[in-house]
Write a structure and sequence with these properties.
The complex is a heterodimer of chains A (about 350) and B (about 800). By secondary structure, chain A is α+β, with helices and mostly antiparallel strands. Chain A is built from eleven helices and eleven strands. Chain A is rod-shaped, with a radius of gyration of 42 Å. With about 800 residues, chain B is an alpha+beta fold. The chains are: A alpha+beta (about 350), B alpha+beta (about 800).
Chain lengths: ~350, ~800
């Protein structure tokens, strides 16, 4: 009898199509009024031996049925989950929700890189106004009155303010003057910023950016100037053996003065930086002229130092292969997206200047 | 400044190869721009003999030549009118590159007749502009020989870029002197013996203003015969790109380049009375030798006769008194003209010349007489004639000065140890004369041609550049400590952070001009007259920008025109209020236009609105460290914003930012399709956060009790600002109410005409016990009362 019942019940369990039917089977078999429970209740009327024997058999049956139900339940759950997941299928090839990541302009990125390198050498950043007067832009920098750079063709002038001739600074050098007038040596600053010259063609824009460097103390000499700029250029351009050539030159505010070339190759019309035998001019520098020190209230018999200036767009173009200066100022989205930098690419010497 | 190798060797005795000379020039600061060796470029061109010339069977103007190249006889079709049998000319075979026409010769059929090469014109060889016929050489020209060698073109032309201080190197002799000092040979002595005058000059010279012309040396030479100059002189001038004119003119040009000594020769028979150096008279004009007519003013110096101006001093001579083939008597001028005045005059008139180039840099004040004597010698040699005595007006300006060099300064300033003896040698080779010498210092007299040397630093530079900058050892910068200090101030850091914040929010950084058209700038506030450019590069860049926005709006418009209407741009840079150093503000400004959410399968498309701009402004302020929770929002944004859809973020009276939709009429004027929103954050106005003792943040105090959230909907007049309700609610119990958020605004059926419903969610955070329903009820009543008092609103039924 138990075998027949067992087979019948097990068949019912197997046949239960879903969890609800399975529960019905469980109640019908093992519930308070279930058939197995009913048989258990009948045990009381049996002799002790019969009871023991039959009780054991019934318990076995009960466990077997319960196990079968659990197993079936697990199967049904799995099948149910599977069916649900199947129903929940989405098209993962659809595009994600729109997110726009903006870009940092190459000029800002380049300035951040320059600052990162010079910070390492103990420089701080100084700034000054774009609208300057003749004294800070020229006179204090030892430009003689007839110097061509004061010419209307190069300098943008604004209406005179009283006896001051006002202009847009033609270089970042007036901030040298402002720094020396406001701060006692030792001085070690760089000055990135906007500069203006009345010139507009393939390779000139009326506004561009320069970074100026100024070091004033009692011992800095031209060897330090060379060391500083060699270290900077090699770090900035990421070329360990980049050769630099210092050539004598002339600037009113430095003496001795030099122009600096970096090594390059122009083979096949392609510009490559490195030790290839050809040269490309990138900056001007020199030891600060004693007249400039004196004009800024610095004792030229005690203090000395160097200054340099270079075009930010120019070195950005060289480093990042940007072909046309004028495109820097056009705010063309396609250009900004292509040549710009993602905001998390913060230049640092610890993580590498350039990704 | 151009010169040839052989010209250099007129002054420098040297065996150094060209490459070494070129390298040394650059290392001396005389940067070599190019070296042009025409013998290389013209190597393929040979002297050839035209054996016969027959008319082309099929063309009237063409001839068929048989040309003997020295190795073979070839057939050439030629169109030159002077092609004839017996002519010696210059032949290029097929495959030769023709520099003057930038082509490579191919074998060709010309009207059915084969041509195996070309007989060349001067223009085709880039020798001159002459193209009326082929080159016609003397009969004794050796057939088959290299034309370049025959014509003396195997003389490399060196072009150096001269810094404005090196007036002395505007002459070949100065360059030779530098090279000699650098050890590349010896400077040859210069023959400058005076020529004895045979008579007294019939012309006197009178200087009216010695500040404009300190010295004038003249000489009358009678009975000259002017004509073409000899080949050696023509070759020199042609090599550096000057056209030979006549012996008299060529001599002056030669000395201009040889000795940096500009000269002028007047046809004395056309000069009336004598020479006067004076200021031009107002309205006076001069027809110059360069073919131009100049109108002069009283600031310009002229060399005049007793009638009128005959030359623009130091720049260009006048046509009327210029020398011609017919000239018989001449008056030679060697003078000194003021550099600044010459430069000024030249700029005013737009007159460039080789003389001006030298006068504005400064001509050797001690070589005026020498210049006149050298010129006299050459004139006598090439044109004959008889010289007068010199006429000297004015005097040699005082140029003698001494400078002391402490020898230790070469190391102290220059960073390289140059032995004292070498310092001496270098300076003396450059023409400095030792006046006094001690162990640690020496005093030198500066040569007359070095007006650029003023102080000890200049002497150091002279020693360094001749010794070579390459010899200066590179020394690393000394460091104050191992770890560098921050390079940026808190204010500078803000600009960096603002940029990266805005870029992270999806905006693209632009860098735009600091200037803009005044009519556009005028839409963005009052313009300070002191910020209007006197000499703008163009009329649309004539004032300093009062705001960055117009540049960004126009850039957005340009991008839309290119097919990219959904634009987000920002710039962190200056806006200008007035021309004082404090009149420049650091502003972070941005513009968004088009769709904020583009068409997408999962999102609802939405155009940009004022809240996008507000979010940008707040993000920048937050990044800049502004107390954004305490900001007030007012609705008094300036006129370039939509009056009903814009706001100002402020701390009391201080405006930190403005944001909103841009005014439709501004967009229309700028021809940009809306909607577009913008913001301006004034980074300098953000107060610096107070640093109270160190870097520690205040201790985090976490409440063990759960926060409770309750929602309230208030009905208020439609004009009541949501911020007012939120603030009132928040103020109801400052200890318990942690946050108030607006989550719904509704206007329409059920709240009445002219009214709106604003729903806020209030977060209560107890710190000492769990709130009971009664507590919450009591606070709720306080909130309702506070909102009612502040706004007149009541709970929505």
């Amino acid at each position: 009898m138990p075998d027949a019942l067992k087979n019948e019940l097990l068949q019912l369990v197997t046949d239960a199509p879903d969890l609800a039917a399975l529960e019905e089977v469980r109640v019908a078999a093992l519930g308070k009024k279930g058939r197995v429970t009913g048989l258990m209740k009948e045990l009381g009327g049996l002799s002790p031996d019969e009871r023991r024997e039959r009780g054991a058999a019934l318990n076995l049956l009960k466990d077997e049925i319960a196990a079968a139900i659990d197993a079936r339940k697990a199967d049904l759950n799995t099948a149910h989950l599977k069916a649900r997941l199947e129903a929940e299928r989405i098209d993962v090839t659809l595009p994600v929700r729109p997110e726009v990541e903006g870009r940092i302009h190459p000029i800002s990125q380049t300035i951040d890189e320059i600052v990162a390198i010079f910070a390492e050498m103990g420089f701080t950043v100084a700034d000054g106004p774009d609208v300057e007067d003749d004294f800070h832009n020229f006179t204090a920098l030892n430009f003689p009155p007839g110097h061509p750079a004061r010419d209307m063709h190069d300098t943008f002038y604004l209406p005179d303010a009283g006896d001051k001739k006002m202009l847009l600074r033609t270089h970042t050098s007036p901030v040298q003057v402002r720094t020396m007038l406001s701060k006692k040596p030792p001085i070690r600053v760089i000055i990135p910023g906007r500069t203006f010259r009345s010139d507009y063609d393939m390779t000139h824009t009326p506004m561009f950016h320069q970074v100026e460097g100024l070091v004033i103390d009692e011992t800095t000499n031209m060897g330090h100037l060379k060391g500083c700029l060699i270290d900077f250029c090699r770090a900035f351009f990421d070329v360990d053996d980049l050769p630099l050539r210092f050539r004598p030159s002339f600037f009113p505010f430095t003496e001795p003065s030099a122009e600096v070339d970096i090594g390059c190759s122009r083979k096949g019309g392609e510009l490559k930086l490195g030790n290839f035998g050809d040269w490309l001019e990138i900056l001007g520098c020199g030891m600060v002229h004693p007249n400039v020190l004196e004009a800024c209230g610095v004792d030229s018999t005690r203090y000395q130092g160097f200054a340099f200036g270079m075009g930010i767009e120019r070195i950005a173009m060289l480093k990042y292969g940007i072909p046309d200066l004028r495109t820097f100022f056009e705010a063309d989205l396609r250009w900004l997206k292509h040549y710009g930098f993602v905001p998390l690419d913060v230049p640092s010497l610890a993580s590498g200047l350039t990704r | 400044m151009k010169f040839t190798l052989s010209w250099l060797k007129d002054h420098l005795d040297t065996d150094a190869p060209l490459e070494r000379i070129v390298e040394t020039l650059t290392s001396l600061g005389l940067e070599v721009e190019s070296v042009h060796d025409r013998s290389k470029e013209l190597a393929a061109f040979r002297i050839a003999h035209v054996v016969s010339a027959e008319k082309h069977p099929d063309a009237d103007k063409l001839r068929v030549l048989v040309v003997d190249t020295g190795t073979e006889k070839v057939q050439v079709v030629c169109g030159a009118p002077n092609a004839r049998a017996g002519l010696k000319g210059v032949f290029a075979t097929e495959g030769t590159y023709i520099p003057g026409s930038d082509i490579t010769l191919k074998k060709g059929m010309i009207r059915g007749v084969e041509s195996q090469g070309m007989m060349c014109s001067e223009r085709e060889l880039k020798l001159s502009d002459e193209h009326n016929g082929i080159i016609d050489l003397p009969e004794d020209a050796p057939v088959g020989a290299s034309f370049a060698e025959y014509a003396g073109l195997n003389d490399p032309v060196i072009d150096i870029s001269l810094t404005p201080d090196r007036a002395d190197c505007a002459g070949v002799r100065g360059i030779a002197r530098d090279l000699a000092a650098a050890g590349l040979g010896t400077l040859k002595p210069l023959a400058a013996e005076p020529v004895k005058g045979a008579f007294k000059s019939p012309f006197g010279v009178q200087i009216e203003r010695t500040d404009a012309c300190p010295m004038f040396v003249g000489r009358y030479i009678r009975g000259v015969k002017n004509g073409p100059s000899p080949k050696w002189l023509q070759d020199k001038l042609l090599a550096i790109g000057l056209r030979p004119i006549s012996a008299l003119v060529d001599i002056t040009n030669y000395l201009t380049f040889d000795a940096a000594r500009p000269l002028h020769v007047f046809d004395a028979d056309k000069v009336h009375g004598g020479i006067v150096v004076r200021m031009a008279r107002p309205g006076e004009t001069l027809q110059a030798l360069n073919g131009k007519a100049y109108e002069l003013d009283g600031e310009m110096t002229v060399v005049a006769d007793h009638d009128k101006a005959e030359a623009l001093a130091g720049i260009v001579g006048g046509e009327e008194t210029g020398c011609t083939e017919a000239t018989v008597n001449v008056f030679l001028e060697a003078a000194l003209f003021d550099a600044t005045r010459t430069a000024h005059t030249g700029r005013r008139l737009g007159a460039e010349s080789d003389a001006r180039y030298r006068f504005e840099r400064g001509v050797d004040p001690a070589a005026v007489v020498t210049g006149a004597e050298r010129a006299t010698r050459l004139i006598l040699e090439l044109c004959g004639g008889e010289p007068s005595e010199l006429v000297i007006a004015g005097q040699e300006p005082a140029w003698r000065r001494t400078l002391t060099l402490r020898h230790g300064r070469v190391l102290g300033l220059g960073g390289v140890d140059v032995p004292v003896a070498e310092q001496h040698r270098i300076l003396e080779a450059l023409g400095f004369r030792t006046v006094e010498s001690q162990a640690d210092r020496a005093t030198y007299e500066v040569p007359s041609w070095r007006a650029d040397v003023h102080g000890e630093a200049d002497l150091v530079e002279e020693v360094l550049r001749v010794h070579g900058y390459d010899a200066i050892p590179a020394t690393p910068m000394e460091r104050d400590g191992t770890v560098a200090k921050p390079a940026l101030t808190a204010g500078q850091r803000r600009a960096v952070t603002a940029r990266r914040t805005l870029a992270a929010r999806g905006l693209f950084e632009a860098v735009t001009w600091s200037f803009m058209p005044s009519e556009v700038a005028g839409l963005f506030g009052d313009l300070d007259p002191g910020l209007r450019l006197v000499n703008p590069i163009s009329a649309d860049l004539d004032v300093m920008r009062p705001s960055i926005l117009p540049n960004l709006i126009q850039a957005a418009g340009r991008n839309a025109d290119r097919g990219f209407p959904d634009v987000g741009l920002f710039e962190v840079g200056p806006a200008y209020r007035d021309p004082t150093p404090k009149g420049q503000d650091l502003v972070a400004a941005g513009v968004r236009a088009g769709n904020a959410v583009p068409r997408h399968w999962a999102e609802k498309t939405r155009t940009v609105d004022a809240y996008d701009a507000k979010a940008d402004a707040l993000a920048v302020l937050e990044a800049a460290g502004a107390p954004t929770a305490n900001l007030q929002v007012t609705t008094d944004a300036p006129g370039w914003y939509h009056p009903g859809r814009s706001g100002v973020l402020r701390l009391g009276p201080t405006v930190l930012a403005r944001f909103g939709e841009l005014h439709p009429s501004v967009l229309e004027t700028l021809k940009v399709k809306g909607p577009a929103v913008g913001f301006e954050v004034f980074l300098d106005a953000v107060p610096q956060p107070k640093k109270k003792g160190g870097t520690a943040k205040p201790l985090l105090q976490l409440s063990p009790f759960q926060p409770v959230e309750r929602d309230f909907a208030f009905v208020v007049d439609a004009g009541v600002e949501a911020d007012k309700i939120a603030r009132a609610a928040k103020g109801a119990d400052k200890a318990l109410i942690k946050d108030v958020g607006v989550f719904d605004v509704y206007q329409g059926a059920g709240v009445g005409e002219g009214r709106k419903s604003v729903a806020v969610s209030v977060t209560l955070q107890p710190t000492d016990r769990t709130l009971t329903e009664e507590d919450i009820e009591a606070i709720g009543q306080k909130i309702v009362a506070a909102v009612a008092k502040a706004t007149g609103g009541s709970l929505r039924a």
